[in-house]
Amino acid sequence: MTTEVEEGRTARKRRQIVDAARAVFLRNGYVGASMDEVAALASVSKQTVYKHFTDKEQLFTHLILATTAELDGLARAIAATLGDGDDLAEDLGRLARLFLDALLQPDVLRLRRLIIAEADRFPDLGRTWYEQGFECVLETLVTCFERLAARGHLHLDDPRLAADHLMGLLLWIPVNRAMFCGGEAGAPTGAERDRLAAAAVTTFLRAYG
Description:
It is a single chain. By secondary structure, the chain is mainly α. It has eleven helices and no strands. Helix 5 (about 70-80) packs antiparallel against helix 6 (about 90-105) and helix 9 (about 135-150) packs antiparallel against helix 10 (about 160-180). About 25% of the residues are buried.
């Protein structure tokens, strides 16, 4: 019982450290972040931080790779939304809006900025994050498109290119605008997101429907 309590306490402290590190890295960047600040925000000693993570680089790597799990929800949503429904336009529209809402979250945008900013310092980390995150989401979309094509709902020569086209139509302008403008300034409103989702789906289905 004592061992279980100790393991639970250890896991809680690790979560506190990771949550604090996320806030510190997103606010200050990699160079500006310090283990002292992480420890203070996590309400643990600096020695406790080093007990879990040997240095700042290991903590940063863990934090970035752990966020790929957050994209699993998008992959599951794709599979659930593009199932056996009879109205493909409606299903794609619902999925498009979900993508916009998920990828335009302020913390997601800040994380993308951080990874891009540190891409030269940690090229392997950026590549791994992309492959385990967005690449997996795209592959799920490709699989669904292949199934829809087999049922005659889509006409595709290259399902992967079609997936890239849909994502480009949907995300290119709003995500880049939000990435460059910072904060909430560049994020489209609810009505704008509905319009963007509808326009992307309409254009996509004209090409592939």
